[in-house]
Write a structure and sequence with these properties.
There is one protein chain. The chain is mainly alpha-helical. It has one domain (5-129): Arc Repressor Mutant, subunit A (Orthogonal Bundle). The protein is built from 7 helices and 4 strands. The protein has helices spanning 5-17, 24-27, 30-33, 37-49, 79-88, 97-111, 114-129, and strands at residues 53-54, 57-59, 69-71, 76-77. The strands form 2 sheets. The protein has a two-stranded antiparallel sheet with strand order 1-4. It has a two-stranded antiparallel ribbon with strand order 2-3. Helix 6 (97-111) packs antiparallel against helix 7 (114-129). The longest helix is centred in the last third of the chain and has 16 residues, at 114-129.
């Protein structure tokens, strides 16, 4: 399966969202996903524009369409975003959060997506603590 920056960010948000108490601010960062900061900010902007996520706090200015900052503290994946990910990856929406993340970890590992594999592994570890 091919993926771009936008899909990488959306999959990371979906994965983190499976926790009882998601920590988007610390989990969803350009560095964690292996993305350049401007690419990351534009991906967030596109995802929000398409209605797949909401809650990003953008600061804009200057003479560029690239946001100056994008704060991820309050990000939530929308029902449309959840359906998109679950349809695309054939995830059973009735599964528990832990089951979903285990399935994602397996797929990310199989596909060689290291950054997303790390996000899923970290999420599972944090879920096991609670």
């Amino acid at each position: 399966m091919e993926r771009d920056a936008k899909q990488t960010v959306l999959l990371a948000i979906y994965t983190e969202y499976q926790k009882d108490i998601p920590d988007m601010e610390n989990a969803i960062k350009a560095a964690n996903l292996g993305l350049e900061k401007n690419v990351f900010k534009v991906a967030l902007d596109k995802l929000e524009n398409e209605g797949l996520i909401n809650g990003v706090e953008f600061r804009r200015g200057g003479n560029t369409a690239i946001p100056l900052t994008a704060l991820t503290t309050y990000i939530k994946i929308t029902p449309i975003g959840i359906r998109y990910v679950e349809d695309k990856l054939n995830i059973d929406g009735a599964s528990t959060g832990e089951q979903k993340v285990k399935g994602l970890l397996s797929r990310f590992t199989e596909w060689g997506w290291e950054q997303l594999k790390d996000v899923a592994a970290r999420t599972l570890a944090e879920m096991a603590k609670n």
